[in-house]
Design goal:
Elements lengths: L4 E5 L2 E5 L1 H10 L2 H4 L6 H14 L3 H11 L12 E2 L9 E5 L4 H11 L4 H9 L10 H21 L6 E8 L2 E8 L5 H11 L8 H4 L1
Antiparallel strand pairs: 1-2, 3-4, 4-5, 5-6
Length: 207
């Protein structure tokens, strides 16, 4: 199946062709790791994450290895099946992006409820000091950011963006890389348009 993508960077537009995708997939060993079980949309997404966002492809490949049972468990949340109508039957696995939105989301998750308020009351306790000191601010920053991420990582609860895949005949087929903000319906439409021609069995999920 031949496929190509138009990429816009500022005022420039260029085309990613099928041979570019094949070369990229071979560069990162996808054909050895998951032969015939990755879509060209997945390869394009991986390429763009590296080019546009500076994401190390091996951070995602390590997640795939863990899903395939040939790599060490990662520090992200376990794979789970989508809920709702648009992606029912498909699965997603988080991969961690060290960008501001992912970091902020993990901190929000970790300090949900009244945890942040309690932490602030503990550190900025007027009984300890009648004024806010630099040391108190540094401790608060460290515990909010660094400790939150370390704790979630140690508990394998880091969240981030999604590897979308489907389980078919006992094997994982990797369809795309996407964000929470994309929306289930948009993800389903992309899979229907770009992955269904490659994997006809997806008609059971996104027909």
């Amino acid at each position: 199946m031949d496929i190509s993508f138009n990429v816009h960077e500022g005022s420039k537009t260029y085309k990613i062709r099928n041979e570019d995708l094949v070369r990229y997939a071979n560069l990162y060993g996808l054909e050895r790791l998951i032969p015939g079980r990755y879509s060209w949309l997945f390869v394009f997404n991986l390429m763009m994450l590296e080019r546009m966002n500076g994401v190390d492809p091996f951070s995602i490949i390590d997640e795939i290895k863990a899903l395939e049972g040939i790599g060490r468990p990662q520090q992200t949340k376990p794979a789970s099946e989508f809920k709702g109508t648009h992606l029912k039957g498909l699965w997603h696995k988080h991969f961690f992006l060290a960008n501001l939105s992912s970091i902020a989301q993990n901190i929000r998750n970790h300090l949900a409820g009244k945890k942040l308020q309690k932490l602030a009351e503990e550190i900025f306790d007027p009984k300890k000091s009648p004024v806010v000191t630099e040391e108190m601010v540094n401790e608060f920053s460290h515990r909010v950011v660094t400790e939150s991420l370390e704790d979630r990582a140690s508990d394998s609860k880091l969240t981030g963006e999604w590897i979308v895949f489907v389980k078919h005949q006992g094997q994982n087929y990797f369809l795309c890389l996407t964000t929470h903000e994309s929306g289930d319906e948009n993800i389903a439409n992309s899979i229907k348009i770009l992955c269904l021609p490659q994997f006809s069995f997806l008609s059971d999920y996104v027909s």
